[in-house]
Amino acid sequence: MKHLVNIAGKAIGRGFTPFIIAEMSGNHNQSLDRALEIVDKAAECGAHALKIQTYTPDTMTLDLNEREFHISDPNSLWAGESLYKLYEEAYTPWEWHKPIFDRARELGIIAFSTPFDDTAVDFLENLDAPCYKIASFENTDLPLIRRVAATGKPLIISTGMATVAELDETVRAAREAGCKDLILLKCTSTYPASPENTDILTIPHMRELFGCEVGLSDHTMGIGVSVASVALGATVIEKHFTLDRAEGGVDSAFSMEPDEMSQLVLETKRAWQSLGQVNYGPTAAEIKSLQFRRSLYVVKDLKAGDVLTCDNLRAIRPGLGLPPKYLEQLLGKVVGHDIKKGTALTWASIQ
After folding, report:
1. Are residues 119 and 220 in the same domain?
2. Is the same domain home to 252 and 291?
3. What is the pLDDT of residues 296-348, one digit of tens each?
4. 190 and 329 co-located in one domain
């Protein structure tokens, strides 16, 4: 199976630094100026991509504030809202898409979006979107997945809540509809998520099971889970991004601020750099450190014919003498010539 994915000239795979996506979502707070500032900050922080979402309240739900259309869960960040009002607050006006995409291209980062219906896909195709993302709540919407896959663009799918059987259907639908470049993101669809319910050990299993690149859509706070996921083979990290959590926004409570995004970019790169390969013995950089091992040294002046004892032969640093493993074998041996204190012992010194 092909793993390596290329998005707008950026290679994604285990041979490359992790691909970091800053998710704007609704953190623009209905201000285009703020949206463009988020793009600026994402680029400044070193993110490789900026993602938005393409929908309207009417393409998402019905304008009702009752029954299942009302968010009644007291633990929800959006408790008391209607679904319609929430999406009305969070959606990115479609006329903003081009300015956002243009600003990202000017700054050298990749802008793309999550479409939620066919009209959004058609709109994004007119903007020449370089790839698409399927949100975790839509990963069982096979008609949508087929429509997006038919564009031939790389496809990123969040796997939150999906069973293995559902994911199998999703992946088959995408590939059968023309998707050749697929990335699955391990995702826990709670906001925020906790490290305990993130289960990133799924990442290498998912890679093997579906034969594609795998990353993490991370809703936890901080960068620890993302860094750990890189050690398990994640090649893409997606994090919600805002200018300042204190300024509010529908997703601000679990979004990263610029300083944190900069740390994410830096530390996931370090984690990736540290993976290397299975290796034993000194690396090239360690060769010069071998001299600081312990070895056998004569620690008192000796005359020819003297016997080596624990008083005159010790394992000390540096490492220019015989290895310490020979100490017991050498005790009781006679030296064949005078040896000055501080001399590294060699076999040639033994009578």
Report:
1. yes
2. no
3. 999 999 999 999 999 999 999 999 999 999 999 999 999 999 999 999 999 99
4. no
